[in-house]
Amino acid sequence: MRSILSHIKIKNQYLICLLSVGIVASLCLLTRDFLDHKVVGYLLLVVVSLLAMSLDILPVLLSAVLSALILNFFFIQPYYTFHINSPDDSLLLFLFFMITLVNGVLTHKIRKAEKRLQIKEVRVNTMKLYNALLDSLSHELRTPISAIMGAIDTIQSKTVHISEKNRQQLYLEIEKASLRLNHQVENLLNMSRLESGVVQPKVDWCDLKELIYNVLDHLKEDLHFHKVVVDVDENLPLFKLDYGLTEQIIYNLVFNASQYTPKGAKIEVKIEYNPDVDLEYNPDKSMPCLITIADDGSGFPEEEIDKVFDKFYRLQNSKTGGTGLGLSIVKGFVEAQNGQITLENREEGGSIFTIGFPALVMNTKEISNE
Asked: Taking the model in full, what pTM does it have?
């Protein structure tokens, strides 16, 4: 309520003050014979206090002056005149006016102080977030760069003799570190694209089976100690999706599973087509393309599942490294294609990501038969 009123134009704030004081005064006027004028003063004071919690200072001062004039003119005898017979009533009106003004000004100042404090807290939290991100990035980028430089120095060294086998191993380490470095840079660029709103899917017919195996090939070093199971129907149709965005989605999810599950864990990738859903008649809810990526690791803490897709968020007890961008990029790319993604812990242990796309379908089996 407060945030909404604070954005109202100043002329509308004056109108709100006039209406608020006028309505309360009118209701009190109808019951003037049963209400003491002191009670009316208290009610008008409450109105001004409530207005001061939400509006600018000038409209609040107007409501304070207006309340004092209305109290004098309509509720302090003699009625319908600004003349006051009783010194007690004169003192009461003066105190009412001063208290109303002071209360309105103080409430407004308190509100401004709270706003400044909130801005300061946001800045502090932002600085902490960026410092954590920079620390994480420095680790994530320095590690592959150091590996690349160390391997190159060893290969180029004239004082150290290395066998051909060791040389090939060093080349492999350079390739692995380069891929890791490229992955981090890609994540930063992708997050920048999502933040700027320039992600425009370029949909075309995609062979998801081919896409899955391309991703697994790129991640073969990271998946070396994992058991990967791919479940794809031989007659899986083509889906109209953005190949690049979908590839990045699968890459990030499988990469995350490889990094945060123990050696020997199983990672399952499954693609399903639900032929019972007709896009033409249900364009908003239909998800004929379903992709699930599951593992049998330790899963996610239940209290943190709702936060894992937040930008820069990392699990409380996760291992060092990582930028907290991977899953937020996944969600952004899924939603850019009008899809939905959910995360659940499996009863038998581990977690499962489920992605649904409302994609158009081309049945390749029917085409080949024709």
From this structure: 0.56
